[in-house]
Give the backbone structure.
Amino acid sequence: FPVYYGIGARVKLEDDFKLGVRVPVGIAYQVSGLPLDMFFELVPMLNLAPETDFGFNGGLGVRYFF
């Protein structure tokens, strides 16, 4: 199970505007012989605008590689 991490921007345009930074950390499982992987990730988020606050998000999914 390879571990991955990264950093990226967060822009929320729905109900209320938010701009911030997110740092996903997760594990993935590559399905043997198929262009698929399954993953689970936890994502700490730091919102910077319009106010500064901290939160968490998470994800569980499947990726298909073209």
User: Anything to note?
Assistant: The beta strands are 3-5, 8-12, 18-22, 25-30, 36-49, 53-64. The chain has a mean pLDDT of 94.
